[in-house]
């Protein structure tokens, strides 16, 4: 848990519930520490490397009516990038044209991300402030987030100034694997199957071409 995470997440109402369950002593120190420390929390090489291996995340924003909105953002591995130690960003691809998150952050720029690694049962939670950058605003920046090998229209880029983050526990994360994650394990099995089929074909040819057995 980064320094300021508790100061953001552990509101008075949250602390009341923690107190009921006996965890306020531990988390209360995190809250006080965050409020006393100036500035924001810097991302480290651990977060940079972790995000570089991800192909999706969940993004939460808040609407003008106060309702939270959560959506999944996906793309090629590494499309969510650490720009610098206080900033992450990604290409915003054309989707269903609802633009709910884009509209939400124009009024309230606070967002939260949950980035999961299902295979290793890890998750990183991030608090930050989002800024939408269009092609008109900064065409070079938007282009820098595009992946020429990924067939999608980049409408804009999103930059998030990171306030705090937390590596959460593994509990209750069901392991799931993408095709790319399974490939190193499936490829040898496919080769073994191909070899067995080839061997069976050779044996069959040998039986069919051999001398008939005496009766």
From TrEMBL:
The protein's matches in Pfam families, at most eight in alphabetical order, are given as: PNPOx_N (PF01243)
Q: Which residues cross the membrane?
A: none
- Gene3D superfamilies tied to this protein: Electron Transport, Fmn-binding Protein, Chain A
What range does the record give for the signal peptide?
none
Q: Which residues form the Pyridoxamine 5'-phosphate oxidase N-terminal domain?
A: 44-140
Name the UniProt record assigns to this protein = Pyridoxamine 5'-phosphate oxidase family protein
Q: Which organism is it from?
A: Mycobacterium yunnanensis
Q: Source taxonomy lineage? A: Bacteria, Bacillati, Actinomycetota, Actinomycetes, Mycobacteriales
